[in-house]
Amino acid sequence: MSRIRTEFFIARRISSRTDGRSNVMVRIATLTVAVGMTVMILALAVVMGFKREITAKLVGFGAHVRIVSLYSQHSFETEPVRLDSALMADLAALPRCASVAPYALKGGMIKTPDAIQGVALKGLAAGCDTAFLHGSLLRGRLPQLGGTRTKELLISENIARMTGLDVGDRVEMLFVDTSRPVRRDRFKISGVYATGMDELDDAMTFTDIRNVQRLNGWEADQVSGYELMTTDFSRLDDFAQQAYDTVFAHADQTSDVLKVEDVVSLNPNTFDWLRAHNVNAAVIIVVMLLVAFLNMVSAMLIILLEKTSMIGMLKALGMRNRAIRTVFILRSFRIIATGMLWGNLIGLGLALLQQATGLVRLNSAGYILSHVPIALDWSWWCALNLGIPVVMLLLMGTPAQAVAAVKPEKTIRYQ
Fold first, then answer.
1. Which residues pair with 227 in a beta bridge?
2. What's the rounded Cα separation, in Å, for the pair 68 and 101?
3. φ, ψ at 234 (rounded to 5°)
4. How far apart are CA 113 and CA 163, in angstroms?
5. Which of 5, 79, 253, 277 would give a disulfide with 69, using CB separation of 3.0 to 4.6 Å?
6. Listed residue (340, 352, 335, 351) closest to 384, CA to CA
7. What is the helix (H) or strand (E) element at residue 262, kind and residue range?
8. 8 Å CB contact between 93 and 101
């Protein structure tokens, strides 16, 4: 029988014959590993969920990068820029550019007999990326873009609830401008959407870009700016810099002075808040590892004390300290593996339940989203399941050193 098989056989025999205090401590250690694994899975799933959901929604309502007039402020009233087909073609040719589309923005109010709700009316051009709105659509359809101009409007479920409107209803909108009298216009509700991001759902409505151009008194080639989407969000800074370089190269070909803004620079507080979640997740992982390690050490020391005579006998038969340490590290591995198995089952089960039902709700005023988001990904899950046992086994090498202190002549003498 090979040495490794001998050590494995002895470790398995210890596992099957554990009793008394050591059995209780083994169960506590296994439970601790299971709870720690569950908490770590849920913590990472929630952190990644917040990052993914909030980023996707901010990008969905806007874009990864937008190009607007230098004189436009962060408001619903924007300075128009001239459509530049050459600039759009060069932007579309950038590496990792998914789409380029013009848009127009106008602030207004939805007026019903019972309510008045301030909103932003965003005009979309034919060919723009509408995947986000399609994915958020609850009922009805998106407004018709391109072709014959229609006065269709997409509103959120929050706005529909506050105003009593629904698909097929006609609604009057008011538009106030300091330079002209109050304008009135009527739209037909084509669809209702919901994203769960109440702050934006309460304000954003969508229609054909030509409706917004007409309300702003703009010509057909005047827009609020351009929206760019990239295929690689992790390299957003590089993409934004390339867009800036392209705009700068066209500066002498247009009278418009443009600026380039990315979604991170437009929402610094939100992304700083998301980055702070990384620290929270790291603290949780370290604390859970520390608690699991301390319980594992307690279990290991009790097992060593109860198996002192066995250790002395193995030494008397010629087994080296290193081999005996391997026996107890293999015993630890079984505890860790059992705890991790249960932790994965419980953690993934709870995560999938929340993902499917949205059972745990949030106050959107404080957390932006209305429910706890979950994002399960093989990359961090595999890293967690490979990293945790390696770290734990490395740490368990320290208490296993107690084997060297056992003297066979003393342990056998008193048997």
1. 66, 101
2. 12
3. -65, -20
4. 9
5. 79
6. 340
7. strand 258-262
8. no
Helix (H) or strand (E) holding 236: helix 236-249
Task: Considering only residues 26 and 312, tell me which one the structure prediction assigns the higher pLDDT.
Answer: 26
Residue 320 predicted with pLDDT over 60: yes
Local structure of 208: helix, strand or coil: strand
Burial of 206 (0-12, 13-18, 19+ CB in 10 A): buried
Q: Are strands 170-177 and 137-140 parallel, antiparallel or unpaired?
A: unpaired
**CA–CA dist 257, 78 (Å, integer):** 13
CA distance 354 to 371: 9
Structure tokens at 242: 């390339």
Q: Give mean pLDDT, residues 106-118.
A: 86
Nearest to 206 by CA among 220, 218, 191: 191
Mean pLDDT of the chain: 82
Q: Are the CB atoms for 239 and 263 separated by under 8 Å?
A: no
Question: What is the share, in percent, of the chain residues with pLDDT greater than 70?
Answer: 82
Kindly tell me if the per-residue pLDDT of 327 is higher than 80.
no
Q: How far apart are CA 143 and CA 152, in angstroms?
A: 5
- For residue 349, the model assigns a pLDDT of 93
Q: φ and ψ at 133, to 5 degrees?
A: -70, -40
Predicted pLDDT at 178: 67
107 beta partners: 120
How many angstroms separate the CA atoms of 211 and 207, rounded? Answer: 7
Enclosing H/E stretch for 226: strand 225-230
pTM: 0.75
Is there a contact between 374 and 46 (Cβ–Cβ < 8 Å)? Answer: yes
Checking DSSP bridges between strand 204-208 and strand 116-124, what pairing results, if any?
parallel
Residues 6 or more apart whose CB falls under 8 angstroms from that of 251 comprise 257, 258
Whether the CB-CB separation of 210 and 122 falls below 8 Å is answered with: no
